[in-house]
Specification:
Elements (H helix, E strand, L loop, with lengths): L16 E6 L2 E6 L13 E2 L2 H12 L11 H11 L1 H17 L5 E2 L4 H22 L6 E2 L8 H12 L3 H14 L2 H8 L5 H8 L1 H10 L3 H24 L6
Parallel strand pairs: 4-5
Antiparallel strand pairs: 1-2, 2-3
Helix pairs in contact: 1-2, 1-10, 2-6, 3-5, 3-6, 6-7, 6-10, 7-8, 8-10
Length: 244
């Protein structure tokens, strides 16, 4: 039997939330004190804009602190506590997704669906090739199409050149989109995070148009869109004054 007390949310223990600049970046402050991550590091962000967004999550907690809803705070904890020690694994994950990237796989039919996919996917493949030297080859169906090793190396170099906060965002984006190219495009503000999510489910949305909407699928999509909005806020917050 589940212990109900283990599921109890902590009470909001602070009255005021603010942001201040400190030695390690922009600090979120609760009643003038900076909270710490699970590894006891100060909750400090590389830009004021991102610190303000994280502070808004803390301000939004009313009587209890619901950490699962505080996506930016959880991402900050990961960026500070875990990413510095897992950079190589995250970079390898970006390369793995590029090897089987969503934007390379087109439906064999119907033609309308394939054309809709390619209408979204091809401009992104072209952008990745033009701007980052990541040339990925499309294929139809589910058969794996090996990608040029130089492109996999290029996307690894792209990820390796990002700081821990951007790399953390890329890691979240991979799981949300199933695509390294979409993740790159959002990180570089070529696409909004929400538009990228809708592109990632273009086939599912097309199927809904043909056969009708499913309540369970709509709930799942709604949850993912909320995650996309948080991811967009993360990258937007990092866009100005990112530090290495």
């Amino acid at each position: 039997m589940t212990n109900g007390s283990a599921l109890k949310k902590p009470k909001r223990f602070y009255k005021t939330v603010s942001v201040s600049e400190g030695e390690t970046g922009w600090h979120v402050e609760l009643d003038g004190r900076t909270p710490v991550t699970p590894a006891k590091r100060k909750l400090a962000l590389p830009t004021q804009a991102l610190a303000v967004s994280v502070a808004e999550e803390w301000e939004g907690q009313i009587e209890e602190i619901d950490l699962p809803t505080m996506t930016l705070t959880r991402m900050a904890n990961v960026a500070l506590d875990r990413t510095p020690d897992t950079r190589d694994a995250l970079i390898a994950e970006v390369q793995k997704y590029a090897g089987t990237d969503l934007v390379c796989y087109l439906a064999q039919g119907p033609t309308e669906l394939r054309d809709r996919q390619e209408g979204h996917f091809r401009p992104l493949r072209d952008w990745a090739s033009r701007e980052h030297g990541v040339l990925l080859l499309p294929t139809e169906g589910v058969m794996n199409a090996p990608q040029p090793p130089a492109s996999i190396e290029a996307i690894g170099a792209f990820a390796a050149g990002k700081n821990d906060f951007v790399l953390t965002g890329l890691g979240m984006a991979l799981g949300l989109y199933g695509s390294a190219v979409l993740s790159m495009a959002v990180a570089e503000q070529e696409l909004t995070a929400l538009d990228a999510y809708d592109i990632s489910i273009v086939d599912e949305l097309w199927q809904m148009e043909q056969w009708g909407e499913d309540d369970e699928a709509l709930r799942r999509i709604g949850g993912h869109r909320r995650d996309a909005l948080a991811l967009g806020a993360w990258f937007e917050g990092l866009a100005t004054g990112v530090v290495a």
